[in-house]
Amino acid sequence: MKDGAKFLGGLCLAGLLLWWVLRGVDPAALWETVKAASILGLAVAAVLTVGHNVFRVWRWQALLEPVRAGIPFRPMFVAVIVGYATTWVVPGRLGEFVRPALLSARERIPLGPCLGSVLADRLLDAATVVVLFVAGIWVSPPPSDAAAYVAVFRTASMAFVVGLGAFIAVLLAATAYRDSLTPWIERRAGPLRWAGRTLVSFAEGVSALRSPRLLARVCVLSLAAWLTIALATWIGVRAVGADISFPAMLAILPLLALGVAVPTPGGAGSYHGAMKFGLMAFGVGEAVAVGTGILMHVVITLPVIVLAIVLVWTESLSFKDIVSAGRQVRDLVAGREAGNGRPVEEAS
What we know:
The chain is mainly alpha-helical. It contains 16 helices and no strands. It is globular and about 65 Å long.
């Protein structure tokens, strides 16, 4: 019932955002924009969008190397794609929990480090997007009428980076002082003991960041992944007719990332709104900006969903069981089973 309520809430939000996106747009101009889009350009964008996951898998391998070196590429790729597809079609961003649950079950890797590595994955994504935003704004400043919005976003980005750095420092400290922390944690009361155990367990997933070699590797792979996403989006945007530079695309990237993160079904409405706002800030016409959002939303979601269906079939997986496992992991992380005193790693 709670998932159903979240889905209905997300659906209502998506409808409201789509109404805002489409409000006042000339239907004839929008249809002409969609008809004039380059199919080849959109196809290239779709291939690159799916292809960037190769860099994600390599980065995930690097993050989990201290836990287990040499994890095969295939099960990790399956977990990434199925996780993303689950996020698109199931409410509650369940895919973030499906990915570690699937890899942990198939490769017998402790669940705690798997969850921690996914957390590190998301932290690296956020940091990389901010870096690319700063680079894009520096190379391609927006029009003067958008300067105020950019200033606010720049300030928020700096605050975010500071907070992100502090959080990573806490996780790294937990890994460095695990032997000292564990006895103290074990003497705490139930909920605090559970939280401490979970933190230490998660921290194993970011321990790779303590190694200069692995840190350099994950940073390079993060840049490669997000530059590929930016390139794919830029090619797709140009294919629809939006005339913006690649640095401008880097500046818009955080808006699109936030649009995807909003809990609407498949990012509907929120992604379209982010694309419209970002493109119009750089002088793109409203009909073209809205048409670009519609077509690029299809480009980023449909290929991943189709590929996930193929992988679920070829790997003899049950999507129902995958979703159920993801929900169990989500509930565990949320502390709904904290009363049993088990750390996340033991629950696997």
